[in-house]
Amino acid sequence: MKPTLSFSGVPGLIDMPSGDTMPDGTFNLSVSKFGEVARATISFQITSWMAASFRLQSTGKWDNNTDLQPALPNEPYTTYNDRSFDLRFRLAEEGIWMPAVTLGLQDFLGTGFNSAEYLVATKTFNDRLKVTAGIGWGRYGSYQSFGNPFSGIRDTWDPSGLGSELNAGNWFRGPASLFGGFEYKINDKWTVKAEYSSDNYDLEAGNKKVFERKNPYNIGVEYAWGDNVRVGAYSLYGSEFGLSFHLVMDPKNRPGTIGVLGSGPVPVVTRPSRASDPDAYDGGWVTQADANAVLRKNLTRYLEKDGIRIEDFAYTADRVQIRIRNDKIDAPAQAIGRTARALSIVMPASVEFFDIVPVVKGMGVSKVTIRRSDLERLEHTPNNAATLRERVTWSDAGAMIPGGLGPEEGLYQKFRWRILPGFRVTAPARGDIGIRASASYDFAPGWIASGTVYQKIAGNSEKAKLVDKGGTLPHVRSDTREYNEGSDFAFERATLAWYARPAPNVYSRVTVGYLERMHGGVSGEVLWKPADSPLALGVEVNYTKQRDTDGMFGFGEYDYAITTGYLSAYYDFGNGYLGQLDVGRYLAGDVGATLTLDREFANGWKVGAFATLTDASAAEVGEGRFDKGIRITIPMNWMLSNPTRQEINQTIRPLQRDGGARVDVEGRLYDTIRDYHTDRVDDQWSRVWR
Prior knowledge:
It is built from 10 helices and 31 strands. The strands form 3 sheets. A 13-stranded antiparallel beta sheet has the order 19-20-21-22-23-24-25-26-27-28-29-30-31.
């Protein structure tokens, strides 16, 4: 039986967790509600044995009883919103006799409102019945507790706390309780569940009287709509009716199709042997005055259908170098393969070496050298992708072979634009939706002007009550609501950027203008990244001023300017795991470091988390204590099944505060150039022949 999810968005029964583990790399979104308690959870199976979740919980009627109400002058909460992070660790896989066993830390990094720890086991019988039993502490040890197995005193929830404490001193402390239940799979679509819950809901059902908890029993039925969607209806605690919705996404698999649609590749053309046609190998063709123009025209016929444009093209008798811009194909390896196929058709027989140089923002980011004879010999052989990869070399892009004629006609100057739905978040479940329009203009290689505007259509952020979250740092981020509500229309960005390669393996960027919605100025960056190395090192310096909240072009409202800078190290650990460490000075003047860990999939999906610690104290930062969050990249071709390099990027923070804040500059170098380096291309090299 496949794992199912609980109301908390983790593998479980109804309101209790189970010992199951989701498939490696699975990403799921869960929304559930019973009575006045609503939850929205994002979970990611980081490895086969570890998972993480971020959850928003909203509890209504919170002002039924004000005994535990935070001190808010004349304005008690009517709804209490809480954010929490979970970690789950698989201790044992299910076997013939062994159940699946999981250890969980719920709300281990937050206010502690939902804090709980558990050890739970699940066993499957006849692929129909699953039985779960576990022991819980904290929230899961609050009903029918049988004692304190590991001794120690557990701190109670402090409603006035700033949150983001590790709370390790509470783990597995205090009273414990047993919980359990079963689920039975009627058929491929319908499943019934029943459980005994050890969550007494002391705050919600006790102090706040949000709902009445009559008994510990929950029952429900769930319907599976294909492999990705699951909905359920339940009776909970003898008094409430509940609903749940779960969307399960596997970045490794695309829903509803087996691959990205698009034109098929042209076949590799095999040259005649040197013995049968020696004249074809004499190289005299290089002296023809129109050879470059004719060859380029023929190459364009094959490449343009795949969205590949020629930045430059030159050759000698036995070697050709082509610089390409890939505007369409999502997999860099496939773009390289399509280019090599076209060269095999067009280039005279004497050319043995194909140097393919992908160009991004005017910069040659690597040189991929393929022997033509390897293409001819391997096209139809077993395991041809792996064999070809062993023979392909990666190096610095270097200088162009003499004789190039420059970019093809229409590549510069080039105007591009797009309009997409957009949104801005002010607080949990508060914000607005609108239209976001972006445009860019390529003046010359490396010179790009771009801008973004936003028009609000509807929103509810004005209904959110303003709460003083503390903190004494300059309001470089915490005034997000003022910016969102300052104007329905806003110029979010308007910049001019210059990208260059000042030395081998070295890339540079200078961006000037309105860098983001809240800050404008100048940003400069230099990155060292060999094409075949997992390591990259960078330095960035920014001088910025804080923009006015009206969405236009002024800087006088805040009168705040600062110089920030960072030293950065990036490392690809292999198997899709990436690490990044940034050390420097942040927007509010605090000094510290940011650690980011990502998992990247061959098709472009990326899920990661980051956390920042600086020398700003908890009192200076206020609620939330430090900057942290989750970032997600979803390639649009995963949803559309059509070739495109566009993607959706979203960063989710439990709370936006001023400590550890960085200016949000578009087009930072590492993510810009590494698509065509070995640490990225190797992940999807199997598509080189497609």
